[in-house]
Amino acid sequence: MSRRRIAVIGAGVVGVSTAYGLARQGHDVILVDARAEPGRGASAGNAAQLSYAYGDAMASPALLRHLPAIALGRDPAFRVTWSLDPHFLIWGVRFLANAGSARWWSNTAHILDLAEVSRREMASLLAEVDLSFSYRMAGKLHLYASAAGLDAMRPTVQRKRERGLAQNLLSRAEATLIEPALEAFEGAVIGAVHTPQDAVGDCAEYCRGLTAHLVRHYGITTLFDHTVTGFARKGRRLHAVQFRDRDALPVDLAVVAAGPQALNLLRDLPEAQAIWPVRGYSLTLPAPAGTPSVSLTDVSRKLAFARIGDRFRVAGLADIAPRGGRFDEARCEALEKTARSVFPHLFNHTSEVCRWSGERPMTPSSRPLIGRSRLTAGLYYNIGHGMLGWTLALGTARRLVDMIAE
Ligand SMILES: Cc1cc2nc3c(=O)[nH]c(=O)nc-3n(C[C@H](O)[C@H](O)[C@H](O)COP(=O)(O)OP(=O)(O)OC[C@H]3O[C@@H](n4cnc5c(N)ncnc54)[C@H](O)[C@@H]3O)c2cc1C
């Protein structure tokens, strides 16, 4: 394909990974972001998990059974703020429609396929680029508090093994042999699902490092601190990207990778209707002695613990609230209180805690949206990565780059 001038809107993990794929194909890439540097949106403080064998869609039979408790505010990990916004109602109905077991597995299988592409793309990126983002094949333990909960995982683990993924059910004693820090875990654990080939890495560092590499080695242009407001067309064909605060940028093609804020571009990209933001929180601290080195997820409390270089991070909570929500101090304190209750010794340096929240750009099916705008020829999108954007970014970038090459 001939060299094209392509704007990528959004320098989160999805936009930066897309810019990488396009630059390698020889295109003239302009990476645009409203923030001052890459990786400042949802990609800034996530749980750092490259969950290649997890991929489980959020709308599931288990979540459906748990819905009354969530609706009544009895699960501290979830908060739903009901709204009559038609967009929210449509999203909610479509979310419920995806929670049946056949749809759940078809969505999960789709995500696992994308995750496999991501895993391969990550391996080739690591072989090609000298990037430092605390990447490690840490492995992952999902901890279960009850025998019934662990047992319910058996069919899913079996299905994943049939797909060639490495995953095992372990007793608490077996899990503690793999991660001795579990000796100090103060929550109930009956056993665990172990995924030895899942990895961990700092997503924001990846965004900054890969962008710097793209500028140095591929000569891409970056345009930060500028907010895109829409797109100019000649007939049906994209002509230029328009900004709030600078002149329009003439381009051949553009890719919207604006994460949860793709919703602000609905006039030009009605496909973004399918996204609703789901807010989560994280705390990052210096890692003291006794920090687990295997990534842990406490399934009943919905907490993810990760060691990232010399820091550790705990992330969790899923708040489905009206658009335009902000950091909520009380929710962040709730996360810290729960995390402290299971690993108190990790919280001795509370003065150095970095508190963060971000919005997961969730689709009802948990499947990312990769495609061409139906309104504007030359406008593409790579959005809606929900809980798994760090894991899936390189895979969806590959799919989008292939689509453009067609
Ligand atoms: C608490 C939490 C934990 C998570 N844990 C994990 C995990 O362990 N593993 C995993 O795989 N995923 C995880 N995720 C999900 C993952 O972080 C997201 O799916 C991913 O970061 C989305 O990336 P993105 O590039 O689409 O969006 P973003 O990172 O938000 O990037 C979008 C960028 O677009 C820019 N932008 C938006 N609109 C405009 C505009 N109009 N003009 C210019 N720029 C614009 C924004 O400034 C932003 O920089 C987690 C998310 C949360 C909140």
Automatic annotation (TrEMBL):
| Keywords from the named record | Oxidoreductase
Which residue ranges does the record assign to the FAD dependent oxidoreductase domain?
A: 5-403
Q: What class of enzyme is it?
A: oxidoreductase
The EC designation for this entry is 1.4.99.-
Question: Which molecular function terms from Gene Ontology are attached?
Answer: oxidoreductase activity
The record's InterPro entries line, in alphabetical order, gives: FAD-dep_OxRdtase, FAD/NAD-bd_sf
Q: Which family does it belong to?
A: Belongs to the DadA oxidoreductase family.
According to UniProt, the name of this protein is D-amino-acid dehydrogenase
